[in-house]
């Protein structure tokens, strides 16, 4: 896995998370169809006569379900219904000839790899949503995926992202009809403008190579927005995405339980310093390749999705409740204060929105009972982590250097923003300035470069107020659209509610970590926009 020069959340040597021991570096690696009218021919055959003619991008006599995203792509790829040469078939044939011509072992392996890639591309063309759903599943369970990555020369997530983008590009190039495709939503458009602004600030920045990797990581993460927006076009796709969000968090929480209570670790350690310990207690990242704090925030997102769906989906209430229970048992064992605070904020918002529901008192009683049942799972170190927060109100006299570092992060970020409020320092600029001589006397400061543990202030410091405005516009627009769509009573409103509340949880958590390049943030933005559009299109 390609690593950053100074880690995701810390130094080159590593570090902890948001606990009192350290700050914790992390590491991460890292279409709808447009139908085509080719026109007819002067000849006549039975097959052409039997094929339905497209009128204005629609097939006469077909119901609304026939014009879903996948159906439109299928019709678009076949034009007016007559058989024609397939670009994918031609490509497969060419690759087959290349494989036969290969004589050396390297050439054979290359031919097999190209053939597998062509097969994957064909699958994604036939089912565009499959690639996006797989990417959503891999986003939180990237620690599990790392097992396969170690046997592969290329990151599987990046490979699947590239294949999905290629499939979408082929579909868009070969089809013209816009049936079944939503107009670009505000959050999607703003996220794309934010990506352009990030690239611009990088080119204008004097950071050069020091910020190149951060820029590439952020831009590659932002690609998830158009991938999801173009790939997931039906209510069934979105329902699967919501289930994957909740289930992946439950799986990660189960791995936390196995490691914390049974001493069994099934996933590889990406960086030994990522699994930080404080006062003798190891902090697990579960199924994630992130540091324990970020991994806990991802599980908090999954928990909120499962809780809301348990309230809004009676048919599968016990499934959602079981997933939420697993997430809740694993969450405190990870020792992340920010994840606990964000989860509490999400639950408070949920309680406020449902305060007039006839079953609200029963739900509150269940929450209290669940909290009491959870107490045995709370390690003593987590209570100590919250206890040291009181030191901030005791003249700032604290042994927790994490708190001092966080104060310094924000003070330095504000100073950098004041120096260049329009373009900022450029992506990846904050860690270099943090380690510079100008800020060497700030409290808790360390010698090695570190990122600003506040996503909003880091975006402002590195891309200026323009970048911050685009960033907040995309996030705020996604939350607003989802929560407005959640006012209905159907399944579409339930999905929008779950995604909207989950994004709120992650936005609160981002006050304490540099989450602007975490995959889940932009996955949630795209899903919220898609859920709001589907709720308007088909509220059932």
TrEMBL record:
* TM annotation in the entry: 91-112, 118-139, 151-173, 185-204, 216-235, 241-258, 293-312, 318-350, 362-383, 465-485, 492-512
Q: Where is the composition biased (Gly residues)?
A: 12-33
Annotated O-antigen ligase-related domain ranges read 323-472
Pfam families from the entry? Wzy_C (PF04932)
Q: What keywords appear on the UniProt entry?
A: Ligase, Membrane, Transmembrane, Transmembrane helix
Q: How does it sit in the membrane?
A: Multi-pass membrane protein
InterPro entries referenced in this protein's UniProt entry, alphabetically: O-antigen_ligase-rel_domated (IPR007016), WaaL-like (IPR051533)
Q: Name one GO cellular component term.
A: membrane
- Major site of localization recorded for this protein: membrane
In which residue ranges is the amino acid composition biased (Low complexity)?
43-54
Q: Where is this region: Disordered?
A: 1-63
Q: Where in the cell is it found?
A: Membrane
A molecular function GO annotation: ligase activity
For this protein, the record's PANTHER family field holds: LIPOPOLYSACCHARIDE BIOSYNTHESIS PROTEIN PA4999-RELATED, TEICHURONIC ACID BIOSYNTHESIS PROTEIN TUAE
Q: What name does this protein carry?
A: O-antigen ligase domain-containing protein
């Amino acid at each position: 896995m390609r690593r950053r020069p100074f880690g995701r959340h810390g130094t080159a040597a590593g570090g902890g998370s948001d606990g009192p021991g350290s700050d914790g570096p992390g590491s991460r690696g890292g279409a709808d169809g447009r139908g085509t009218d080719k026109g007819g021919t002067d000849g006549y055959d039975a097959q052409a006569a039997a094929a339905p003619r497209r009128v204005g991008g629609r097939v006469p006599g077909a119901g609304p379900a026939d014009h879903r995203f996948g159906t439109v792509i299928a019709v678009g790829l076949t034009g007016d219904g007559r058989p024609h040469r397939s670009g994918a078939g031609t490509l497969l044939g060419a690759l087959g000839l290349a494989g036969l011509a290969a004589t050396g072992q390297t050439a054979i392996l290359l031919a097999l790899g190209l053939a597998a890639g062509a097969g994957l591309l064909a699958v994604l063309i036939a089912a565009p949503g499959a690639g996006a759903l797989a990417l959503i599943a891999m986003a939180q369970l990237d620690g599990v995926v790392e097992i396969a990555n170690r046997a592969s020369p290329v990151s599987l997530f990046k490979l699947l992202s590239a294949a999905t983008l290629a499939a979408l590009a082929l579909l868009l190039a070969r089809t013209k009809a816009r049936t079944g495709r939503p107009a670009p939503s505000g959050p999607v458009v703003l996220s794309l403008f934010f990506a352009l602004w990030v690239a611009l600030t990088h080119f204008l920045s004097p950071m050069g190579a020091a910020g190149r990797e951060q820029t590439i990581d952020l831009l590659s993460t932002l690609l998830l927005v158009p991938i999801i927006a173009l790939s997931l076009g039906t209510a069934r796709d979105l329902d699967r995405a919501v289930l994957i969000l909740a289930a992946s968090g439950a799986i990660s929480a189960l791995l936390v339980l196995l490691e914390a209570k049974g001493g069994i670790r099934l996933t590889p350690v990406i960086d030994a310093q990522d699994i930080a310990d404080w006062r003798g207690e190891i902090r697990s990242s579960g199924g994630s390749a992130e540091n324990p704090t970020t991994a806990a925030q991802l599980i908090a997102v999954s928990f909120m999705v499962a809780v809301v769906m348990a309230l809004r989906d009676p048919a599968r209430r016990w499934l959602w409740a079981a997933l939420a229970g697993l997430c809740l048992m694993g969450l405190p064992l990870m020792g992340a204060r920010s994840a606990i605070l964000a989860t509490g904020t999400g639950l408070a918002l949920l309680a406020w929105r449902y305060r007039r529901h006839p079953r609200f008192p029963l739900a509150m009683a269940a929450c209290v009972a669940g909290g009491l049942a959870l107490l045995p799972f709370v390690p003593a170190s987590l209570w100590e982590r919250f206890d040291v927060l009181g030191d901030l109100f005791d003249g700032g006299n604290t042994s927790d250097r994490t708190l001092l570092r966080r104060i310094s992060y924000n003070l330095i970020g504000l100073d950098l923003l004041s120096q260049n409020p329009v373009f900022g320092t450029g992506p990846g600029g904050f860690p270099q300035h943090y380690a510079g001589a100008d800020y060497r006397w700030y409290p808790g400061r360390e010698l090695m470069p570190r990122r600003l543990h506040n996503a909003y202030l880091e975006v402002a410091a590195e891309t200026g107020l323009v970048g911050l405005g685009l960033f907040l516009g995309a996030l705020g627009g996604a939350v607003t659209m989802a929560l407005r769509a959640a006012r209905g009573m159907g399944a579409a409103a339930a999905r929008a509610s779950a995604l909207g509340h989950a994004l709120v949880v992650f936005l609160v958590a981002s006050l304490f970590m540099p989450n602007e390049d975490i995959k889940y943030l932009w996955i949630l933005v795209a899903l919220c926009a898609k859920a709001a559009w589907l709720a308007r299109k088909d509220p059932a």
